[in-house]
């Protein structure tokens, strides 16, 4: 049992709970060992986030069945197609950002929940739908019976200026709020290790925290 890991997890869990006990803490386990993930499971963590299919595939069968796996990584349709059985095990696919994924997700053999990843800052190296394409994409998703869109996910540009970060979060939050009723949204996924508390203050319903819990990754 890794006591330092347990301690860091409990500290983050408490910080999340003290701001919003309903906020879902997604433990980002990409690049981490099965032992460490099992340790956090034993501490009560159930939601884990993975970014790479091959890495995730190696872990899935060796960890408890009731883990709520979130896929949060870049999604190319070629790889998604190859890993359909893995995607079918995901409780929430957070990083959906292109039309070519929709027929794949619709035919996993099980209904699937997703978030649309948005990119409001024009950072082309990161995934995500720009704001001007979001509405037509949300309409398109409605055509797929087995895909339920629960809300938005975003990875704003990194800044060490908290006000700048908070500004990015409120931009996403405003977009989310403007669509919430019409699309029955319930989830806004923003905030990582360096800024999850500001994200919760800005209205995050889930935060994705990796290195602040694990202390780094391979
Ligand atoms: C890796 C990753 C995280 C976690 O990042 P940390 O800074 O380690 O907390 C969160 N979200 C996404 C999409 C990631 O790829």
Q: What would you say this structure looks like, in words?
A:
- The chain is an alpha/beta fold and 218 residues long.
- It has one domain (2-212): Alpha-Beta Barrel (TIM Barrel), CATH 3.20.20.
- Helix content is 42%, strand content 19%.
- The protein has an eight-stranded parallel β-sheet.
- α6 (102-106) links the parallel β4 (90-96) and β5.
- The longest helix is centred in the last third of the chain and has 22 residues, at 162-183.
- The protein is globular.
- Pyridoxal-5'-phosphate binds at residues 28, 30, 51, 72, 155, 192-193, 208-212.
Quick description:
The model has no long low-confidence stretch (mean pLDDT 96). 42% of the residues lie in helices and 19% in strands.
């Amino acid at each position: 049992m890794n006591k330092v890991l347990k301690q860091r997890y409990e500290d983050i869990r408490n910080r999340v709970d003290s701001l919003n006990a309903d906020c879902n803490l997604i433990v980002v386990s990409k690049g981490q060992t099965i032992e460490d993930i099992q340790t956090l499971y034993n501490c009560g963590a159930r939601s884990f986030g993975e970014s790479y299919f091959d890495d995730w595939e190696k872990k899935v069968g060796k960890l408890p069945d009731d883990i709520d796996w979130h896929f949060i990584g870049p999604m190319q349709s070629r790889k998604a197609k190859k890993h359909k059985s893995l995607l079918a095990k995901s409780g929430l696919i957070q990083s959906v950002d292109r039309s070519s994924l929709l027929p794949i997700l619709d035919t996993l053999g099980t209904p699937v929940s997703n978030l649309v990843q948005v990119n409001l800052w024009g950072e082309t190296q990161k995934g995500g739908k720009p704001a001007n394409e979001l509405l037509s994409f949300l309409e398109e998703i409605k055509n797929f019976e087995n895909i339920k869109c629960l809300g938005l996910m975003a990875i704003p540009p990194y800044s060490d200026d908290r006000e700048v970060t908070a500004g990015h979060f409120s931009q996403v939050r405003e977009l989310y709020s403007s669509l919430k009723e019409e699309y029955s949204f319930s989830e806004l996924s923003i905030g990582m290790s360096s800024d999850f508390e500001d994200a919760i203050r800005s209205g995050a319903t889930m935060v994705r925290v990796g290195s602040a819990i694990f202390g780094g990754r391979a």
